[in-house]
Amino acid sequence: MPEKVIFFDLDGTLLGMDEPAFIRKYFGLLCAYMAERGYDPEKYSNMLYAGMKAMSGNDGSVSNEIRFWDAYARMFGEESRKDRLILNDFYLNVFPEVRETLWQNAGVPEMIASLKQREFRLILATNPLLPRSATEFRVRTAGLDPKDFEWITVYENSSYCKPNPEYYLEICRKLEICPEDVLMIGNDAEEDGNARLAGMSVYLVTDQLISRKQTDLNLFEHGTRNDLYRYLR
């Protein structure tokens, strides 16, 4: 393979995830946590969806973090911005209970170690809808160290989301990477597949494939995780 920069998706690619169960567990934990602090759980759940929508539609003018907290303040008032400290505590001390919906994929730590030894530039290009602490927890659950990656996209340092091609180009601008030098590896035919619109090569892992629009997989290199290991040798 000619590329020397690899962008990796996390959930469903490096990390095994039951996505519907993860979302239920995550939202349930957070809504219950905030209910103990006086919030109506249903209204809080609606806010979470509104915040996710605001970040997903971000136009690059501000970070996803700012988009989320602006949506939060619209729902609960400007004084609610002080909840940032409360949510920081949640992500550090309660969010790890989502572990029951996640699992480590065999061979992933060895693959990453091999690529590092061969001096590939490794970027964790996970959809930046969550703060760094929640993302780094999931990285560790995959059997990896956040330091394995030169850059990790999180809601604090990103101002676009997948499937917007600008999400990929923003990383390239920040790290002075030419898109044509990148191989994007993911499991979502639309979100990860759109890296090709940014000029990147794409490999889709099919073990936990997501294809909401029934995208033609022949547009990409694709195969199982074991196929990927052989492809990267």
Q: Could you characterize the architecture of this molecule?
A:
This protein is an alpha/beta fold and 233 residues long. It has eight helices and eight strands. It has helices at residues 19-35, 41-56, 64-76, 84-93, 108-117, 132-141, 165-175, 225-231, and strands spanning 5-8, 15-17, 102-104, 121-124, 151-152, 182-186, 201-205, 221-223. The strands form two sheets. It has a six-stranded parallel sheet. Strands 2-3 form a two-stranded antiparallel ribbon. Helix 1 crosses helix 2 and helix 2 (41-56) packs antiparallel against helix 3 (64-76). The longest helix is centred in the N-terminal third of the chain and has 17 residues, at 19-35. The termini are close together.
Annotation keywords:
12% strand; alpha/beta; globular; single chain; 8 strands; 233 residues
Q: Level of helix content?
A: 40-55%
Unreliable stretches: none
Largest sheet: 6 strands, parallel
Order of strands in the sheet with the most strands? 5-4-1-6-7-8
Short description:
The protein is of the alpha/beta class and 233 residues long. The chain is 40% helix and 12% strand.
